Amino acid sequence: MSFSLAPLRKISRVLPFIYAAIVIVAVWQLVVTVTKPEPSVLPAPGAVAIAFEHLLRNGELATDAAYSLARVVVAWLLSAIIAIPLGLLMGSSQRLERLVNPFVELFRPISPLAWIPMAILWFGIGESGKIFVVFIGTFFPILLSTVAGVKEVDPVLLHAGRVFGCTSRTSLFRRVVVPAAMPSVVVGLRVAFGTGWAAIIAAELVAAHTGLGYLIANGMDVLRADLVLVGMIAIGVLGFLFDAVFRYAQQRYSRHG
Amino acid sequence: MSVVNAGKRLCIEGLTKTYATRSGESVAALGPISVDVRPSEFLVIVGPTGCGKSTLLQILAGFLSPTEGRALVGDEPIIGPSIDRSMVFQSYALFPWLSVLENVEFGLQRKDISKSQRREIALRHLKMVGLQDFANKSIDELSGGMKQRVAIARAFAVDPSIMLMDEPFGALDALTRRLLQRELLRIWHEQQRTVVFITHSVEEAIFLADRILVMSSRPGQIKAEWSVTAPRPRDVTSEELRQLERKIYALLDEELMKSFSPGSGIS
Amino acid sequence: MNPIRLRGWSLCVVLLAISVSRGALAQEVINYGVQPDTDPSFIAKALGYFNPIEKKYNVTVTFQQFAYGAPENQAMAAGALQIASAGMGPATIAVSRLPATLIAINILEQTAILIPIDSTLKSTCDLKGKTVAFPGNGSQQYPLLLKALADCGLGVNDIKLFKSNGPDIPILVENKSVDAGITWDPSVSVGLASGKVRLLAKAEQIMPIMGGHYVGNGVYVQNAFLKKHPDITQDLVTANVQAINYILCNPEKAAKLWSEQIGIAENVIALSMKQGISVYSLDVVPTVKTMDAYAKFLKDAGILNPSDSPKIDPSFATKALHDVQGSASTCEATHAKR
Fold it and tell me: Which of A68, A90, A98, A62 is closest to A146 using CA atoms?
């Protein structure tokens, strides 16, 4: 019997989320039916579905999502390009770490959201301000997890590396330290994407003309709570999907490695 | 084709290791130790915890410098880690991002060995430990015993003169340990490398060793030495070997009592 | 004073304070939403025109300040405001989508397009391809901008929009981060007063929707409040019209009062009134004809849905006009007649 269990297994993984979504919609509809709120305060699930379909059809939702995503990806890549090498070096050199660490510790607690007013003042119009805000949010998780990844390399692996041919510091770094730190780096990349996603929404709430954050802000301005909810749902779903992709990549990476 | 390098002679001359504590005092951890290890000899060192046997191995591996004295492989003094002094660790120390085969190949990354040669050597050594079918698996798919076999294959694949083994079977269950002891002996017979093997287990020492050194507690020095000439595989339950076991335990108990008696000065 | 006596007096003071505040709490609070602009409501408050209302009905009129219309509407949607004064954009949205009714239009014009002082732009048609700062889709300014573009045969895709806060827009124009900006008074006047920006077009030039004027600022009230207190509603509107009369009769004194209330420099407010950026009339009636035209425009611009229907009630403003014209000498400004 050539009955494959694989598709069933995939569905069973999604089932808990489908179940949760159904419960949420049911409770929501119940609240709307019972309390009869103003549509501009809490629209019914049906109204939101209609708005969702409308925005999908006229391409606005896709465009806004693409803008938000593009900004995050650019900032996240920029962060990775700077933070990973810096983190690898900081983790290996106590002197460098002592030099750079005070700056990191001073700036890290300042949430990217707090940078938004400055970003608008300095960068003004255009994408650079928003990318800057997201960069702040993505840089530190990647840097910190890279440094941790290097420092937490099992010392016995370093011993083994030195015994089995890594005679110079650079070859030990290249052949043992960097690969050993990679799982931690990947975790950092994943976390950073999440914080970046949150940051772009906040930045777009304040100063943008496109993007999912803007969709929400605009909805608020014109008392279209249905638009606000469409934006929120889109943000939630996309954020969830990205994280799932990362988790999958993480698993595949560590299994392959 | 790699040239089979038989084991070399290892001379340990007056080795001591002293550490400075935070308060500025110096603590003698090891020595003085002087041992002459014959080529292809299987030397086992037993001693109480903290006696410095791991420190000794670290010095022989080249990770630590001795405070006094030196060690020589053949005529060359040990100044740093080298592939010629291969090592097997208690925690396996395999690289999780590499496959089984790639781990064994790791030490073979040299300009004078081509890719296909590397592969061939590595596969041959995997075969030696019976794991050739697992070449492309990842490390986390292996049991502890299998991991240590890969580590042994890796250590032998680089054709070393000396093999250093730091309680390699300590993390394994008794049955796996018996299996690996036999496998190790088989490979050692074939390859004839000089082995310096550290263990807690007196039974293991007697089963494996050509010569057993018993170390005192800190600062570790050689308290006693026995040659074991019984042919292998040995029956450790035989009267002769049982007697040896009792003698060694008596010495170890003596050393252990020192660390438990009041006013011993060991913190 | 010995410690025991001191403790006794302190206790009395505390009890007194509690009973006073309790007494205050027993009154109904009317939360009146305002923004920091030259709103007649501030003049009414400063001159004490709300005091008789508070005494007569045993209520407290409390101003709640908002930076712009959208949060003001959100507060009303949440039931935190009973009456609000905001730009006609947010006001129309509120009375279309909330249970609220428009009862007065108390400031006219109030919007203008600014350009840098040395800009080469000559008319709104020159905005094609340029970057224009604006306060967002829900603002008073957005439909005006659309109309200005439409009159030149342009659409919103022919310019680059940049959303910003109303008060920031003159700064963006001044430092040339944008080619032009449309915003509301007093930000317009603040920009003009700096000497680094000038007017490209005024609201009533673009959309003279109400007898030659543009609808600037509206007052709207929660329907539940309206139903419960039509009398208070009437008196509040009348107080507004009385305030407008004072403004028309005593522009310099009004400017001083506003300056104290909202913190904008007196000379800026004087400039605003002199240049007709913000204009006042005793006639604050939101006529059906005007509102239909305005709503239609908002629907065409996609700001209102076709099914949205703004609720208006001209009766209060009509009575207020009648009462004020009948009772005191009025100073209707000539250019404000409709």
Answer: A90
Mark whether C93 and C193 lie in a shared domain.
Answer: no
In a domain, residue C1? The reply is no
Prior bond of C186 cis (ω within 30°):
yes
The domain boundary residue, chosen from C161, C181, C206: C206
Residues of A in contact with B153 (CB under 8 A): none
Number of separate domains in chain C: 2
Partner A contacted by C298 (CB < 8 A): no
Contact partners of A by the rule of 3+ C-beta pairs under 8 A?
B, C
Domain boundaries, chain A: 54-256
Q: Which helix (H) or strand (E) holds B78?
A: none
Residue of A152, A157, A159, A163 to mutate, interface with B, max B Cβ within 10 Å: A163
Q: Per CB distance under 8 Å, which residues of B are interface residues toward A?
A: 61-63, 80-83, 85-87, 89, 91, 93-98, 106-110, 138, 140, 154, 158
Q: Which amino acid is at C188?
A: V
Strands, E assignment, chain C: 28-34, 59-65, 83-87, 100-109, 111-116, 131-134, 160-163, 180-184, 197-202, 215-222, 278-279
Are both C136 and C277 inside the same structural domain?
Answer: no
Give the pLDDT confidence score for residue B2 in this predicted structure: 40
How is residue A179 written in tokens? 């690969």
Summarize pLDDT for B60-105 with one digit per residue, the tens: 999 989 998 989 998 889 988 999 999 999 999 999 999 999 999 9
Do A38 and C164 count as a contact with CB atoms less than 8 A apart? no
Report the predicted TM-score, pTM, of the whole model to 2 decimal places.
0.78
**Record: fold of A54-256:** MetI-like fold (1.10.3720)
Give the integer Cα–Cα distance in Å for C222 and C236: 13
Q: Which of A152, A159, A162, A164 to mutate to test the interface with B (most CBs of B within 10 A)?
A: A164
A106 touches chain C (CB under 8 A): no
